[in-house]
Amino acid sequence: LLLTVCAVGIGGTFQYGYNVAIINAPTQHIHKFLNETWTSRYRKALNPDLLTFLWSVIASIFSLGGLCGALVGGSAAIRLGRKGALLVNNIIAILASILMGISFPTGLFELLIAGRFLIGINSGIGLCVQPLYLGEVAPKHLRGGMAMGTSIFLTGGILTGQIIGLRELLGGETSWPLLLSSSCFPALAQLVFLPWFPESPRYLLIDRGDELSCVRALKRFHGSSEYRREMEDIQRECFALDGEKPKKPWQLFTDRGVRWQLITVIVMTMGQQLSGINAIYFYATYIFEQAGIPAEKIPYVTLGTGACECLTALTCGLLIDYVGRRCLIIGGYLLMTLWSIILTFSLTYQELYSWVPYVSMTCIFAFILSFGLGPGGITNTLIAELFIQSSRPAAYTIGGTISWISFFTIGMLFPFIVNGLKQYCFLVFLLECSLVAAFIFLVIPETKNKSFLEITKEFHKLNFGRNT
Length: 468
Fold this sequence. Notes:
Elements: H1 2-10, H2 13-22, H3 27-42, H4 48-79, H5 82-106, H6 109-137, H7 143-147, H8 149-164, H9 176-181, H10 184-193, H11 201-207, H12 211-222, H13 227-241, H14 249-252, H15 259-273, H16 277-290, H17 298-323, H18 325-348, H19 356-373, H20 375-386, H21 392-421, H22 425-443, H23 452-464
């Protein structure tokens, strides 16, 4: 099971984290490439406003690709299987790597845009299918820890991207095309290792009706002596579904039986993206400068933020099946609310005392730790647990779509929010974090050690009233 998490994660959410991180390092080099290409092509200098626009397109088209990937991820997981969708997804990543790698030698910045769009599609599909596969493969007493593989590999991808993006490695002026095309290596690794692992047993029995392959897969995952308990659980779910076909995303919006699960997915995915984590990264450089860290050393300090996220994802993976989902996610949001208050004060009085920037720095790391321990890791885990087999792929498509739209929106609006509210922008995130924590406290039951059918019964009371 541990090897399965690694084989699925390396070409799944690792790609998302890696490609979010690596685009920051070569910013100046890509600006220079755009200027030189434009001058040689049109015999005139590139307008600064047009340069900003082209750079914005290169950076943000990734999230547009992610949205497209999220929209097709659920249907790909139904048609090709969870494992099949992940394997085919690597072909998109390899093609994207080739386009980004040859953009510099050919002098075609359009290939860079196309490559970023394709790697966005790859990330969108990976973010949708990986937690789906891990949630279905895991036994219920390990489901939280295995589903946390999604977050562990995502944060591992961010940290790896930050390290490889250092100018001593591939972040230099001549090596940045290699940096952008290096995402082919995780894709190749998954193409080598994932075929050795079985398809999701739930998919094989419930979607395909292939009982023999399901038993074989369960024996591989759980051992010859332990697989029967999992088989009985899958058969009970299959019986409850009574031949119901996988639902389309729009069908969930009209299904009263999943009304509160769907509201929960929408609130949690929006809450995760709009929690202020992007604001923290935006402010990090300014706060590090105020604390007296030289500009050339800041990329190395920023590695600490990536290491923080990675560490908390691992910690959350160890705690989730002992402490429970509710406690960790509510605690994470409440801690983020607290750090937002302290950070607002410390940024307001940054100039008064020499020690205040260090308070701000502490808040940055504490906020990231709180995010990783709660919302960062548990959101995807809960989406897998709140739905039964027929609704789960559609739920991931909806959750992924909302997440990518929120990601794109906050990327576009965030500079204006910061310019308008300055440090008081954290008051907006403070309110959002406390409201999401209250919603989870009032609505979401604990899902630890419960089967998918037991969790569905818990929501039945909310969806149809207490007495039905």
